[in-house]
């Protein structure tokens, strides 16, 4: 099947999946909390439970995609997302709210980037770097497209109907895209060799380093996705200006991914990852020192770095370990990241309440530690090559 068709189908379905789940609390957490008589923290705790569920499911989902391909898993995720969003829209208290998010967490484990990347690795092997970049180019608009839509639906029809609308979109758009336009395909099993045990022993350090990098960068990404409009208001922007500036994350992600697709693809993905990891600390330094005047620059740098790091999450394991066992490896790599994501919204909310924009010192330190880990990974790769 035409690769462009597959990339477009996955790109659109991933935009829907991310925009209607991961990016939902940034807009709906406050109206949910107000109407249900809950604190915002309890709403974010329920959202965090979804990330924990997705972490626990990740390795099993990845193993299944390695064995049978990802088409049916992605199609099933559309159904699960729809069910979770319906339960969320029907919530009249804390228990139903948790039930909705727990089901959505199952869908996240089955239907976000890890599953999409693993599907592409099964279809195209080491040539999957281009398609991975392609779907992230499209899905990079998830926040820019879905935040305004969710905000409008909430303002006009209420947060419950916003959830119902997104559920319908999973059935009417996500399901046919995933089931009808994604071909079946898996890489043939890798032949056994006498060097297999030695190779397995040599992968523990790269796996540990990648696990750390993905964990800290996704903690930063989740914290910003949940709190960026609020953080920008603290920096001095009006509510409307803060939302408008935060929406620039999507275009910045896409611009950076175009750079990766056109120029940086000629180099090892480690170079892209190092450049991306340092972008958030650089932007944070500006907004912490000068406030509102550099808020937009901070958003653009954060978005650009996040955009490339999302690609690196798919391309680095592919470049270092190859396509065989890719799905299981992706699932394992993302377990600590998902647990970190689960804690990030609440933890960063507490940091912002206490320190304001200086809370970015914490996220910047994490970003710089990721750069160090990538440098160690590069040194290890060079030693292995020689």
From TrEMBL:
Domain of life: Bacteria
Keywords per UniProt: Cell membrane, Membrane, Transmembrane, Transmembrane helix
Membrane-spanning residues: 43-61, 73-91, 97-123, 135-153, 159-182, 203-224, 230-250, 271-291, 332-352, 358-377
Membrane topology: Multi-pass membrane protein
PROSITE patterns named in the record: MFS
GO cellular component: plasma membrane
Molecular functions per Gene Ontology: transmembrane transporter activity
Gene3D superfamilies per record: MFS general substrate transporter like domains (1.20.1250.20)
Entry's localization field: Cell membrane
Domain Major facilitator superfamily (MFS) profile intervals: 6-382
Name listed for the protein in its UniProt record: Predicted arabinose efflux permease, MFS family
Organism of derivation: Billgrantia gudaonensis
């Amino acid at each position: 099947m035409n690769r462009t068709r597959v990339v477009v189908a996955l790109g659109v379905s991933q935009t829907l999946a991310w925009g209607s789940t991961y990016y939902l609390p940034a807009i709906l957490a406050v109206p949910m909390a107000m109407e249900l008589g809950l604190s915002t923290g309890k709403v974010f705790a329920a959202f965090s439970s979804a990330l924990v569920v997705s972490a626990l499911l990740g390795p099993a989902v990845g193993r299944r995609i390695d064995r049978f391909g990802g088409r049916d898993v992605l199609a099933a995720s559309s159904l699960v997302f729809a069910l979770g969003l319906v339960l969320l829209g029907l919530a009249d208290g804390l228990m139903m709210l948790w039930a909705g998010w727990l089901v959505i967490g199952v869908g996240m484990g089955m239907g976000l980037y890890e599953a999409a990347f693993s599907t592409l690795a099964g279809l195209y092997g080491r040539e999957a770097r281009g398609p991975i970049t392609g779907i992230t180019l499209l899905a990079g608009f998830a926040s820019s497209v879905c935040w305004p839509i969710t905000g409008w639906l909430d303002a006009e029809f209420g947060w419950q109907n916003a959830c119902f609308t997104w559920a319908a979109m999973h059935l009417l758009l996500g399901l046919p895209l995933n089931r009808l336009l994604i071909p079946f395909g898996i890489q043939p099993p890798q032949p056994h060799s006498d060097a297999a045990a030695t190779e397995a022993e040599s992968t523990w350090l790269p796996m540990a380093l990648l696990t750390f990098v993905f964990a800290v960068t996704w903690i930063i990404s989740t914290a910003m996705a949940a709190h960026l409009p609020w953080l920008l208001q603290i920096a001095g922007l009006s509510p409307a200006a803060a939302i408008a500036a935060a929406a620039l994350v999507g275009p910045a992600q896409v611009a950076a991914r175009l750079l990766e697709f056109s120029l940086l693809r000629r180099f090892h993905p480690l170079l892209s990852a190092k450049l991306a990891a340092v972008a958030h600390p650089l932007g944070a330094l500006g907004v912490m020192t000068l406030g509102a005047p550099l808020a937009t620059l901070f958003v653009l740098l954060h978005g650009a770095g996040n955009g490339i790091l999302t690609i690196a999450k798919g391309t680095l394991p592919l470049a270092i370990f190859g396509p065989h066992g890719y799905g299981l490896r992706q699932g394992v790599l993302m377990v600590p990241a998902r647990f970190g994501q689960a804690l990030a919204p609440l933890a960063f909310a507490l940091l912002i309440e206490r320190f304001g924009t200086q809370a970015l010192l914490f996220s910047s330190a994490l970003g710089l530690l990721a750069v160090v880990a990538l440098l160690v990974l590069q040194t290890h790769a060079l030693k292995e090559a020689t």
